[in-house]
UniProtKB/TrEMBL annotation:
This is ATP-dependent DNA helicase DDX11. It comes from Hyalella azteca. It is found in: Nucleus. It comes from the Eukaryota. Belongs to the DEAD box helicase family. DEAH subfamily. DDX11/CHL1 sub-subfamily. Gene3D superfamilies: P-loop containing nucleotide triphosphate hydrolases (3.40.50.300).
Length: 838
């Protein structure tokens, strides 16, 4: 048994760490060393990224320092055990033990061999890097030396091939063969890829860090460069899509990611002749490819390897990699994949890790490696979305046209078997058209869900009407993917058919998306889920870890406090308004004029005492429009506008930037306003909208955050109902297997979190995760301060309080009467005003 790494006294944090930062770093170090599954909550603005970097890379470097000696100690112990088996008289009893010990010795020797090979590869990289530097200094440009060499090789190849040679099958065949023979880069690239496929070396131990977007990964690299780990001692590679890394102008102009992928793969095949190039408008045009564009000129193996060496020896974000790729005339996408094996820290977006096919295609190997998932509050939703597939009527019609055209053109050349398959395919496409067109199939409901296997047998053939325009990619591939999922689907798969006038789609979804995460949990040495608003933990713990077979002892949790002092935060749960009206904002009561009017009075009074910016979150866009309309009729919105300028979140994403800029300007000008004048601004947002995540309302932009009601999702959603039914069935089955009695909760009594069924827990978690995410928009750094007003009597319930982040629930003021709450808010801001004036 190898000795555990001791907890370090210093994590090389670039600044003196706060207590909560130190606590988080110790938890991360422990999780990686003890091979734990961790759920960690650290509020935004607490230096979460730096804490992750310093703790994870401190562990990684210490682990690598002792790995050689650990393996040597284990090898000596295993060899001694084998020798002891030889000395045993009972050879038959010792045979099995000896075989196991011999296998253990062999495994340890293989690990040591891999370590030596890794060191040799890194030495080779450094040597190539030094050689390249010398060539650059002596010849003026490293990239030009490769260009000259490639051109020379290409010219020699062309001189050695006689263009006069005739082919017995015609000129077209000869031209195609010559194109392939002359394309040295494609041949060499394919040879390297085949060699890589044959090489099953695992490489060094890795930490995979994944987040939702490429911009977040770039921000993480920026934080990494602030630490001592941002130098050459840590080999870091950022994986991204072709759309983000491509530097080929002919491919980049296609814009759409699917088109970029298709064109890139087409270029790697290096085939010549008539090819079908997808254009940005979705149309296809047959174009004769010339010899000059038969393969990507940026995917030259030697230059790609040189760029891979550069990525490993210098920490670079995606923009830096693209810039370096242009300088070396090398593809950053394939360079990153080439460098992956020897990388110690790999940065990847969610989709690369969560989809098994993408993991395999990118060479991401999770076995015995560590995975850190940042912004993990989105993980379950992301797991669901990556497994969903939506097929529109336009895509069905376009696919049907493609198959019909193919049949008409090649019918005489096709065998009877292929004709049968194509006609079956055409039959299925007609069936999809029938399902999506109610006028042709009167039995189809407006919105309906069915189990995936039933979908295959219930479709009926019919004629197809007109088609809408399809943008991006080949729609036929979407149909093929849907067919594949339908015939391989499992019990939790459903097909949702939507035939509303505004949208006609077939949506494939998986009701238990967490099951696809279980392989990751079983393969990884350690999995760490980190986010600013992870509570409630129950869903992650049960669906992701326990369901994968992980024992309770392997799971660890932590909810950090905030770096801000407790006196800088004032969360208030209001049960009544200024006139004593109960703030009952359930779906049945929230539209009542007297309830809206009471909420409006609370907002007006808040605008009178809160300086700078106030951000109000409403449950939905539809309710936002109704709420503001009623406030306008009652005259309360006009009163609010006398205190603060009013802004409303737009539905269009393109208008968000301009609105935020105008809101920030109004807030900044509040410092110049005279007493009695309009002071600051109020911004009405929607929970789950464009402002509730990724937008920082720090300092004056968010001195007060107001949550109006609890944003429970729409129970009339077919998808939500199906998910809740499935989770209820799993919950009751688990209780039956454990011999627990299933009790129905009384409607008059609020069930505890432990008593809720699987569907109820999922429904409540959706709501409170959205609440916590919205609340977290306000406090962004240690000197920041803000008030949170939670307007609904349900916020005072214990089950609700326990679902809030610890740094909120610890300071929560539950106010049954409005006057005491308003006085507390006024005192809070008066105190901070005096503090600033000192």
């Amino acid at each position: 048994m190898s000795q555990k790494l001791p907890m370090p006294d210093d994590f090389s944090f670039p600044f003196p760490p706060y207590d909560i930062q130190l606590e988080l770093m110790k938890k991360v170090f422990t999780a990686l060393e003890d091979q734990k599954l961790a759920i960690l909550e650290s509020p935004t603005g607490t230096g979460k990224s730096l804490s992750l970097i310093c703790s994870a890379l401190t562990w990684l470097h210490k682990y690598n320092e002792v790995q050689q000696s650990r393996l040597e100690i284990e090898l000596r112990a295993a060899e001694a055990a084998v020798q002891q088996c030889e000395a045993v008289d009972d050879w038959f009893a010792a045979a099995g033990v000896r075989q196991a010990q011999t296998e253990a010795v062999q495994n340890i020797k293989e690990k040591l061999s891999r370590l030596n090979k890794e060191r040799s590869r890194i030495q080779a990289i450094n040597i190539r890097k030094m050689k390249a530097k010398k060539e650059k200094e002596s010849e003026g440009s490293f990239s030009s030396s490769w260009k000259t060499r490639d051109e020379k090789t290409s010219n020699n190849s062309r001189e050695n091939i006689s263009p006069q040679k005739k082919s017995p099958v015609g000129e077209d065949f000869l031209e195609e063969e010559l194109d392939l023979l002359l394309n040295d880069d494609v041949d060499e690239s394919s040879e390297l890829e085949e060699a890589a496929d044959e090489d099953e070396e695992e490489g060094c131990i890795k930490i995979y860090y994944c987040s939702r977007t490429h911009s977040q990964l770039s921000q993480f690299i920026g934080e990494l460069q602030k630490t001592r780990f941002g130098g050459a001692q840590t080999r870091v590679v950022a994986l991204a899509s072709r759309h983000n890394l491509c530097i080929n102008p002919d491919v980049m102009r296609l814009k759409h990611p699917n088109l970029v992928n298709d064109r890139c793969l087409d270029l790697q095949r290096g085939s010549s002749g008539c090819v079908s190039l997808s254009c940005a408008d979705g149309n296809t045009k047959g174009q004769k490819r010339s010899k000059a564009n038969q393969a990507c000129p940026w995917n030259r193996p030697n230059a790609v390897r040189a760029l891979g060496d550069e990525l490993l020896t210098n920490v670079q974000d995606l923009e830096d990699a693209v810039k370096e790729g242009k300088a070396l005339k090398a593809c950053p996408y394939y360079a990153a994949r080439t460098a992956l094996r020897d990388a110690q820290l790999v940065l990847v977006p969610y989709n690369t890790v969560l989809q098994p096919g993408t993991r395999e295609a990118c060479g991401v190997r999770l076995k015995n490696n560590c995975l850190i998932v940042d912004e993990a509050h989105n993980l379950l939703g992301t797991l669901a979305s990556v497994q969903e597939l939506t097929l529109s009527l336009a895509q069905v019609c376009r696919s049907r046209e493609q198959v019909q055209q193919y049949l008409q053109r090649y019918e005489s050349r096709l065998s009877a078997r292929n004709l049968l398959h194509l006609n079956q395919l055409l039959f299925c496409l007609k069936a999809f058209s029938s399902v999506l067109q109610p006028e042709l199939n009167a039995k189809t409901a407006k919105n309906n869900a069915t189990e995936a296997p039933d979908m295959v047998t219930t479709c009926a053939a019919s004629d197809v009407g007109g088609a809408e325009e399809v943008m991006g990619g080949n729609p036929f591939l979407v149909c093929v993917e849907l067919f594949r999922r339908l015939v391989t689907s499992h019990a939790s798969a459903r097909v949702l058919v939507n035939v509303d006038d505004s949208s006609r789609t077939i949506k494939y979804l998986v009701l238990d998306p967490a099951s696809h995460f279980h392989d990751i949990v079983r393969q990884c040495r350690s999995v760490i889920l980190v986010g600013g608003t992870m509570k409630p933990f129950q869903e992650f713990r049960e669906q992701l870890f326990y369901a994968a077979g992980a024992p309770e002892t392997r799971v660890m949790e932590l909810s950090c406090g905030h770096v801000v002092p407790s006196e800088n935060v004032l969360p208030v749960a209001l049960s009544t308004g200024p006139t004593g009206v109960t703030l009952d904002l359930t779906h049945a009561n929230r539209n009542q004029p007297h309830v809206v009017q009471e909420v409006g009075r609370v907002l007006y009074n808040a605008c009178c005492v809160v300086p700078a910016g106030v951000v109000v979150f409403l449950p939905s866009y539809q309710y936002s429009e109704l709420f503001l309309s009623l406030l306008r009729k009652q005259g309360l919105l006009d009163k609010i506008e006398t205190k603060k300028k009013v802004f409303v979140e737009p539905r269009s994403a393109s208008a968000v930037g301009a609105l935020l800029a105008a809101y920030a300007t109004a807030v900044r000008r509040s410092a110049e306003a005279a007493p009695g004048q309009c002071n600051g601004a109020v911004l009405f947002c929607v929970v789950g909208g464009k402002m509730s995540e990724g937008i920082n309302f720090s300092d004056g932009l968010g001195r007060c955050v107001v949550m109006v009601g609890l944003p429970y999702p729409n129970t009339q959603s077919v998808e939500l109902r199906e998910r809740m039914k499935h989770l209820d069935a799993k919950h009751f089955e688990a209780m039956r297997l454990h011999g627990k009695k299933i009790q129905e909760n009384s409607k008059a009594e609020e069930p505890s979190r432990a008593q809720r069924s699987g569907g109820e827990a999922y429904y409540h978690n959706l709501c409170f995760r959205a609440v916590n995410q919205s609340i977290g928009r306000a406090i962004r750094h240690r000197q920041d301060y803000a008030c949170m007003l939670l307007l609904d009597q349900r916020y005072s319930r214990q089950s609700t309080v326990s679902a809030l982040p610890d740094w909120i629930s610890r300071s929560l003021l539950r106010a049954d009467k409005y006057p005491s709450a308003h006085a507390a808010v006024a005192k809070f801001f008066a105190h901070h005003k005096q503090k600033q004036q000192r």
